Amino acid sequence: MAQSDSKHCKICDGPGKFICSTWNEHGSVKEIQNYRCLNCGLVFVGNVLTDSQLNEAYGTLDWARYYSEIKEENAAKIKSSCISVKRLTRGNSSKRILDIGCGNGEFLQALRDEGFVSLAGHEIPGADLKHLEQMNIKLYRDMDWSSVPSSAFDVITMLDVAEHVRHPVELFEQCFRMLRVGGYLYFHTPVVTKLDRTMHYVAGLPLIGKLGRIWQRGRTSIFHLQNYTYKAFLLALSG
């Protein structure tokens, strides 16, 4: 299989080492090229993808089935995140909170149930979130966060969002723009593990290489564009 359109890290511009190609059945992009940065360790999709290609891929998903499959995992994550946000805000229910990549709005509804009254969500265009608007939750819809005002929020949350964006450094820069002085950024995202690194090696071996490619297909894809290391986090957050 041919290697990627891009071989440089999205965060530090370091050289990317080719891991493997994986098959993609969502949309018109049929092959995903996977790389690992030799500088910061970020594992990333090397394809140069457009907004229209990503929107096309997301349009193939059965969202009802997806949320049903992750229901228990998501409920535990939301419960834990609510506790963390209450700790960050010291129980002050008037603090302004923005949830980026709010999905179906479950986390925002949970925060409302916890008593928070100044809530907002950000999502790409097309999502049906009328139920949140009916709860007087402000919604921002665009592909680049430009509709969100600056210095407007005390806490920004992102639950499994940072792995989906094409430009992670820009995402974090935009978050800091939106936060008030002294505000908090709270996020969950997959990280590169020792098992990942083992499977990267396996993917290049004869006979058993398919096992490593199957593993990587579940880790990065047209939906999960990167997995972070601690070093990659520090570089992304520092801009």
Would you give an account of this structure?
It is a single chain. The chain is of the alpha/beta class. The chain contains 9 helices and 9 strands. The strands form 2 sheets. The protein has a 5-stranded parallel beta sheet. It has a 4-stranded antiparallel beta sheet with strand order 1-2-3-9, covered by helices on one side.
List its traits.
alpha/beta; five-stranded parallel sheet; 35% helix; 21% strand; 9 helices; single chain; 239 residues
Q: Indicate the proportion of strand residues.
A: 15-25%
Number of strands: 9
Mind summarizing the main beta sheet? Answer: 5 strands, parallel
What's the rounded overall pLDDT mean?
93
* End-to-end separation: 34 Å
Query: What kind of assembly state do the chains in view correspond to?
Result: single chain
Global geometry: globular
Rg value: 18 Å
Secondary-structure element order, as H and E? Answer: EEEHHHEHEHEEHEHHEH
The poorly predicted ranges are 1-5
- Helical residues, percent: 25-40%
Question: What does the secondary structure layout of this molecule look like, with pairings?
Answer:
Layout: E1 16-23, E2 31-37, E3 43-45, H1 51-58, H2 63-69, H3 71-88, E4 97-100, H4 106-113, E5 119-123, H5 130-133, E6 138-141, E7 153-159, H6 168-178, E8 179-188, H7 194-203, H8 209-217, E9 226-227, H9 230-238
Parallel strand pairs: 4-5, 4-7, 5-6, 7-8
Antiparallel strand pairs: 1-2, 2-3, 3-9
Helix pairs in contact: 3-4, 7-8
